[in-house]
Amino acid sequence: MNHLLILGAGTAGTMMANKLRAKLDEAEWEMTIVDKEKAHYYQPGFLFIPFGIYDPERVTRPKADYLPDGVRTLWAEVEKVTPEERTVRLADGRELSYDLLIIATGVTPDPEETPGLHGALWYEDAFDFYTYEGATRLADKLDTWKGGRLVINMSEPTIKCPVAPLEFAFLADTYFTEKGMRDDVEIVFTTPHEGAFTKPIASKALSSLMEKKGIEVVPDFYLMEVDEDEKVLRTYDGKEEPFDLLVSIPTNKGADYVAESDMGDVEDLNFIPTDNHTLQAEHYDDIFVIGDTTNVPTSKAGSVAHFEAEILEENVLSYINGEPLTASFDGHANCFIETGFGKATLIDFNYDTQPLPGKFPIPGLGPMSLLKETRLNHYGKLAFEWVYWHMLLQGRHIPVPTHMSMMGKVPEEEADPELVAA
Question: What's the pLDDT at 412?
Answer without folding.
Answer: 87
